[in-house]
């Protein structure tokens, strides 16, 4: 069974965001036998650091170039017969960070994980708890298949886009913990098609907004909304005025009733009639 996949070149381009080139300074300890060809001894020492994680540089050293020795003097180690030589070189680093998107080639598929190789060298593992529920493992087919699209499969040989969850470095063993929880992750061919669909929808929406009559329609809608708001405000104002009038009428009635028992003219007339 063959899986649709992008070429190795495409995957390397996708991983370019995790690559960087810097000018690094080293202090290398050379054996006295290397004094006749110092630059050769420097290269031997630099080769020992290839494909190893460097805490000082914050990444894995992939390659170096333009190496040169700075200064004409070398300090002799006080306890060992080695010369401390200062070296400058351009170094290419692989330094993935949590949250970055990487593309790896699937080399193993299990019921509880997916194993990949990034750049053909670095191990990456995606546990089942970091795979979204859209995918389900099919042991018979030897792959993880999407429940939404049966053609979206993750199997050995396919290229998968994933998110870096964490980076592990134990005893010079460098590995990556990945995640497929984000919607834009999965088999690279399907991820690129999803991205293309999203871009097409965005461009269509932009075209609709740029049509000649679109601005006028938006203006008319805004005017209608303002009129409706003004009408609602007017109705609310009328209701408040009616409430005030009712309150005033109730106040007048209360004062009249209260005045009937006083010495007001109306009360005096009533007393006179009764007498």
TrEMBL record:
Stretches with biased composition (Basic and acidic residues): 244-253
Coiled coil: none
Transmembrane stretches, start-end: 76-94, 106-126
Domain (RPA43 OB) ranges: 96-239
Keyword ATP-binding found: no
Compositionally biased spans, kind Polar residues: 192-201
InterPro entries per the UniProt record, alphabetical: RNA_pol_Rpb7-like_N_sf (IPR036898), RPA43_OB (IPR041178), Rpb7-like (IPR045113)
Disordered: annotated span: 188-275
Keyword set, alphabetical order: DNA-directed RNA polymerase, Membrane, Nucleus, Transcription, Transmembrane, Transmembrane helix
PANTHER family: DNA-DIRECTED RNA POLYMERASE I SUBUNIT RPA43, DNA-DIRECTED RNA POLYMERASE II, III
Name listed for the protein in its UniProt record: RPA43 OB domain-containing protein
Organism of this sequence: Monoraphidium neglectum
């Amino acid at each position: 069974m063959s899986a649709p996949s992008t070429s190795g070149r495409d995957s390397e381009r996708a991983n370019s965001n995790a690559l960087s080139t810097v000018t690094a300074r080293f202090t290398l300890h050379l054996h006295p036998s290397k004094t006749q060809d110092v630059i050769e001894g420097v290269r031997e020492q630099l080769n020992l650091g290839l494909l190893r994680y460097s805490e000082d540089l914050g990444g894995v050293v992939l390659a170096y170039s333009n190496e040169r020795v700075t200064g004409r003097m070398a300090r002799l180690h006080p306890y060992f017969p080695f010369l401390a030589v200062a070296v400058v070189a351009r170094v290419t680093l692989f330094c993935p960070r949590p949250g970055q998107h990487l593309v790896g080639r699937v080399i193993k598929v299990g019921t509880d994980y997916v194993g990949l190789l990034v750049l053909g060298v670095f191990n990456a593992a995606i546990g089942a708890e970091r795979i979204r529920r859209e995918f389900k493992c099919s042991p018979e087919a030897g792959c993880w298949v999407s429940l939404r699209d049966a053609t979206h499969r993750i199997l050995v040989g396919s290229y998968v886009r994933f998110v870096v969850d964490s980076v592990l470095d134990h005893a010079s063993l460098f590995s990556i913990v990945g995640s497929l929880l984000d919607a834009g992750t999965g088999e690279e061919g399907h991820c690129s098609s999803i991205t293309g669909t999203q871009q097409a929808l965005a461009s269509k929406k932009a075209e609709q907004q740029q049509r000649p009559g679109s601005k006028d329609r938006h203006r008319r809608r805004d005017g209608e909304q303002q009129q409706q708001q003004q009408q609602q405000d007017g109705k609310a104002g009328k209701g408040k005025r009616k409430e005030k009038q009712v309150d005033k009428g109730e106040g007048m009635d209360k004062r009249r009733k209260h005045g009937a028992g006083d010495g007001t003219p109306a009360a005096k007339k009533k007393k006179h009639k009764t007498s």
